[in-house]
Amino acid sequence: MLKTSIFLSLSAVFLSSLAHGAFKSAALPENIASQVIVDYVALVQKSYGETVQKAKDLQQSLQKFTASPSEITLQQAKVSWKQARDAYSLTEAFRFYGGPIDMPEKGVETLVNSWPVDEVYMDYVKGKPDAGIIQNPKDYKEITKDLLTSLNQKDGERNVSTGYHPIEFLLWGQDEVGKIGGQRPITDYTTQTFADRRKKMLVLLGDLLVEHLEKVQKEWEPGSGYAKTFLALPKGEALQKIMLGMTTLSADEMAGERMTVALEMKSTENEQDCFSDYTLTDLASNQVGILKIYQTEGGAGLERIVTALDKRLAKDIGIQMRKTLDAIKKIPEPFDEVILGKKGARATAAAKAVPESLRRQAQLLAKAASAYGLELNVQSEDK
Amino acid sequence: MTTLRTFVFCLSLFPQVLFADLVPKNIGGEGSVDAHSETAFSRPLKNASSKTRTSFAIGNSLFRQNWVEAPASVDVLDGLGPLFNAQSCSGCHSNDGRGTAPENNQWSTPSLLFRLSLPGKGPHGEPVPVPAYGDQLNPLALSQIPAEGNVFVTYKNIQGKYPDGTPFELTEPHYRFDKLGYGPLPDNFLFSPRLAPQIIGLGLLEAIPEEDLLKLADPGDLDHDGISGRPNRVWDVKNKKVAMGRLGWKANQPSVEQQDAGAFLGDMGVTSPLFNEQNCMAPQTACHKAPSGGNPEVSPTNLHHLTVYAQTLAVPLRKDIPPEIDESGFRAFQKVSCVKCHAGPFTTGSSHELKELRGQKIYPFTDLLLHDLGEALADHREDFLASGSEWRTPPLWGLGRIKEINHHTRLLHDGRARNFEEAILWHGGEAEGSKKQFMDLPKTERENLIRFLESL
Fold first, then answer.
1. DSSP code of A257?
2. What's the CA gap between B135 and B89, in Å, rounded?
3. Which residues of A touch B74 (CB under 8 A)?
4. pTM here?
5. What span, in angstroms and rounded, lies between the C-alpha atoms of B124 and B252?
6. Mutation for testing the A interface, residue in B32, B36, B143, B320 having most A CBs under 10 Å
7. Which residue among A56, A333, B44, B369 has its CA within the 20 to 30 Å range from the CA of B118?
8. What is each CA distance from B173 to A218, B109, B151, B377, B431, in whole angstroms?
9. What's chain B's Rg over C-alpha atoms?
10. Exposed/middle/buried for residue B101 (C-beta within 10 Å: 0-12, 13-18, 19+)
């Protein structure tokens, strides 16, 4: 025990001196780095392939549902949405470095994944029975793809009109605390005055989702577009981008926007998948996505590059990542009652452990990166 | 050789302008971030502690949230209006970036607001509000309440030529106040159009020691270089005293907190601990009667989180450009004396309440002082000590990112400049000499200077 702690503190001193430039950065082992990068690109290709496939399944389910609205077709559409979401959540660690998903000018991230949404922008909510684009044929005569795209984030970032979350809202309806998911009645798609416009919007949103994700998939296709550019980058630069995606998702998005805000403000509006109450599954998938980069199945995950530097640190990062995943799984459902403190102190504590663990995993990755002279957007410790 | 000599000469005259080396990548100090695309302005400082990150996350959410009419089911977020310009902070500062300026022959956009006043000064030196309208035009209102009006915008084209014969075109904005909800504006009313600026690095600007800024001031132009520069002195509401103005197009706000609270009230009609009176003028009876979302509508805790958020939005690392262009562009920037106002670097002081902001070497390219920019840019409206033709030197960091963040490149206080070149060409007054020198530069050097600016 004593030996371990001496070793730990020595390696901590060594690494922090590296970060301060007292020592030269460790040289990147080129062969391992190449393998890690090639495997990463393969993982990205596979993941976006599945994401597009699941989005197409969703598109079909939406068409079936709107062609003959019933409880059964609605259920099928909801299942398809969840599967599509599972696939997309696994790809979120591929964001944040200006790659195909969020490339300047050409990126589609805001069209696909904007959140939180102000529901009243699209459709009626409690207390505002006439609201929304759907119920406003006066200003928006015909619902078209161009209209929906142009209205997305117009005059405010919560004014969302495309992507996964508007589809979620149109399927489930407004969130109701204490119930799993919103309770949108089937009559919204049959007898309600604007049923046809609602159906039209849902179908178009499915089409747009597929179109947007296909653009990303195409850029990553082997031998073309961004995949080619990425593989030609200096090894350090490519690795830095990989880790920038993982740490920004951990420390900013998951720990910050998706957990801290909801918990600290006790605000269920800030629960990510509030309409479907699918938030915790999404979070777990995000974390699995990060783990997949670190320990790629049957390949050279990012872990190998850290192992070449410091075996102990490499192991610690893996342990921390699993700890995060376990912590997410320990939060009891439904998450909105945890947010409101209705599930008791233990549930709240379990939820608050997640952002802490996420920040820690980001810090450990930053430690490894800075030893190689690579800078991320977090520091290896709180100073 | 000439370049080098001029540069050395500048340095000896202005020892406070310390641009001896080229500009590094981390112009926002240790907190600079590697950020991309639409979210390039939306990251917390790299060196932010966990505690700061928690506040940042909450502030970020408040910044993006649409405020709603009281009473509403979400109590935290009710209190919009009665009169307002936008429903959320991000409605104007989209992606924490720069607002969209109106195009020719269009109604003004929400992110170009119009300050209003009558000639004279209020008890603390502030502008005098216009009876029935206040100090800002609110084009939106809750249902059942008349809005204040809107402004129709047209641009007149102005043709010009560089000494080398290269032509250019500028567009000069003209405004018509219309749809006025509370009667005609008085004949002697003054107005100032203000485009929502990007909000990165504000905490760092707040943390520059005042004495380092005052060293750059030369109100009487004692060195006869045609450039004066003086601090604005404004009213600090919280501390009930006069303080140096640092933020806003005319440096009329002393702190990030007051800027935020002011925008809550002025732009969204949301009261806060700093400004807890609704902004209804005497004749606006329906405005007075509207239900309140609580007193104050934004709680002290949430105002704190929002302030920390705005203080800790990080400056992105500079973009990579070829070293020879970087050097040539930066030398040209110095040679034509842009650096006399777009100054730096500074080291932030040791007393800011957020430790992440202390002791940071930063390159904001501003002296935060007021300068006379000439008649063409003048709004003829005083704002505390700022005259009708004075503007605060705006920071230049991050300006090259506006295109990818906000999908436009409109610059200056009213967004009239369509790119960096036009922004430079609009400079007059104290900057007239610099502009002329810029125009005299060979074309490649002009282009390199602009590429340098785009890399910031």
1. I
2. 19
3. 267, 269
4. 0.92
5. 12
6. B36
7. B369
8. 43, 14, 12, 10, 21
9. 22
10. buried
Distance CA B452, CA B364 (A): 14
Give the pairing type, strands B140-141 and B83-84.
Answer: antiparallel
* Shortest CA distance from B314: residue in chain A: A377
The confidence score (pLDDT) of residue A130 equals: 93
Cα–Cα distance between A233 and A324 in angstroms, integer? 31
Q: Is A25 helix (H, G, I), strand (E, B) or coil?
A: coil
Position B14 scores a pLDDT of 43
Tell me the pLDDT band of A140, cut-offs 50, 70 and 90. very high
Q: Is the predicted pLDDT of residue A38 greater than 70, yes or no?
A: yes
Q: How far is B321 from chain A (nearest CA, A)?
A: 16
How far is residue A310 CA from its own chain's centroid?
Answer: 29
Per the listing, tokens 């990112």 go with B401
Is B66–A158 a contact, with Cβ atoms under 8 angstroms apart? Answer: yes
Tell me the per-residue pLDDT of B397-435, one tens digit each, with 9 for 90 and over.
999 999 999 999 999 999 999 999 999 999 999 999 999
The per-residue DSSP string of A266-281 comes to T-GGGSTTTTTT-HHH
**Tens of pLDDT, residues A15-27:** 443 444 445 789 9
Q: Which of B35, B57, B87 sits opposite A256 (nearest CB)?
A: B57
Task: Tell me which residue in B33, B36, B74 faces A102 most closely, judged by beta carbons.
Answer: B36
Mean pLDDT of all residues in B179-206: 97
Q: Which H or E run contains A195?
A: helix A195-219
Chain B contact set for A379 (CB, 8 A): 46-47
Interchain contact, A157 vs B33, CB within 8 Å: no
**C-alpha dist (Å) from residue B274 to B202, B254, B373:** 19, 13, 32
A156/B66 touch (CB, cutoff 8 Å), yes or no: yes
Say what the ipTM of the complex is.
0.89
CB atoms within 10 A of CB A24: 8
d(CA B406, CA B92): 11
Please give the residue of chain B at the shortest CA–CA distance from A101: B37
pLDDT at B196 over 50: yes
What per-residue string of b and e applies to A207-217 under the rule 16 or more CB within 10 Å gives b? ebbbebbbbbb
